[in-house]
């Protein structure tokens, strides 16, 4: 007998989407079935992000749009989980008085108890305690070939612009056996690719008293039968070692795609960001990777408009982007986050200047991405088929080991298989090709 229907509204990073799989798992365990229709839902949960001001405003707007529905359906349960819940529970209750519960990032495991509680009395429940475990929660993994698996929770780095350490707490590594067991479970359920998640995967195991580290974990997972590919995010350039590069090089499944967020090309700004490395260190790391794995791809994150960023600092970022020639870059405008050091720094950059710099950076990066993809025309690339293309369900899409998105025609039963595709056309963000028939 189903207990009702639930609707999950998810925003944020991979970690947030993976937390949502644990929320869905608990709801299904409690007898709820998913729906995409607000009118059908008995429970609506917002799994939230607070990394940028705009994300927050959007979430409050969406929750307040449900007031009329709640008036017509008083038994409807509305809840908020995730980073915004952890950061601003009092503000949430003030701005959204019709909300029923606010659950913090460490308290996801309390969901079923909270729903049971709310069925008895409807006083809003707030639980944002700093301790709690996300271990062994039922997971409702999203369909597909890739399974997301946490290896750490939280972060100790306190980059001056980042809210994550304040809402996800200190870095905590999962026991290696627990991680490996979850990987085996996912493979047994038919997943072909594993994405290891952590705010800084490279320091995995530092708090486990030498029982494990990132390299040994990668090597253990790499040997598991049924695994086609291993990916991981997010890396920190300061902690990416030679050993890790060689492990990727000598592995069977670990993909030759390195996502290394540099954030700025100016040493002065990197210092203000408390990133813990210099542009010279970063360039040396890139050279090292390309020396050992010439065909690898390197992508990054970049922030423009950090407080105090001068034209010279920005020019240093553009110069670094030209020097490294990233395959792709996720570019952001600095957004001051209340509670972070950078939010109170002097010389905040005017919004029009930020937008100009972002546009200039994106133009340069798009040219580089396209120039890197064009020579792939004519090559046969191995693709793990993920499913129908989001933009055109008549064709398939998948990724190369270097994380290039490839579209091609082929039968649906290729999903989950490794295939060869001859690249026919190349664009800034995608490749189009033809299936190589056996
Ligand atoms: S490494 Fe820095 S940017 Fe990344 S989550 Fe930690 S504090 Fe935030």
Keywords:
6-stranded parallel beta sheet, Rossmann fold, 438 residues, binds iron/sulfur cluster, alpha/beta, 14 helices, 4 domains
Please explain how this structure is put together.
The protein is of the alpha/beta class and 438 residues long. The protein has 4 domains: 4-127, 3-Layer(aba) Sandwich (Rossmann fold); 141-255, Transcription Regulator spoIIAA; 288-375, Transcription Regulator spoIIAA; 377-435, Beta Barrel (OB fold (Dihydrolipoamide Acetyltransferase, E2P)). It contains 14 helices and 19 strands. It has helices at 14-29, 53-64, 67-72, 83-87, 89-95, 111-120, 164-168, 176-188, 214-222, 242-250, 267-272, 279-292, 311-324, 351-373; strands spanning 4-10, 32-34, 43-48, 77-82, 101-103, 125-127, 146-150, 152-153, 172-173, 193-197, 229-233, 257-259, 297-304, 328-333, 380-388, 396-399, 405-408, 418-426, 430-435. The strands form 5 sheets. Strands 2-1-3-4-5-6 form a 6-stranded parallel β-sheet, sandwiched between helices. Helix 1 (14-29) links the parallel strand 1 (4-10) and strand 2. Helix 9 runs parallel beside helix 10 (242-250) and helix 13 (311-324) packs parallel to helix 14 (351-373). The protein starts with a strand and ends with a strand. The model has no long low-confidence stretch (mean pLDDT 95). Residues 155, 157-159, 162, 164-165, 199-200, 236 line the site of iron/sulfur cluster.
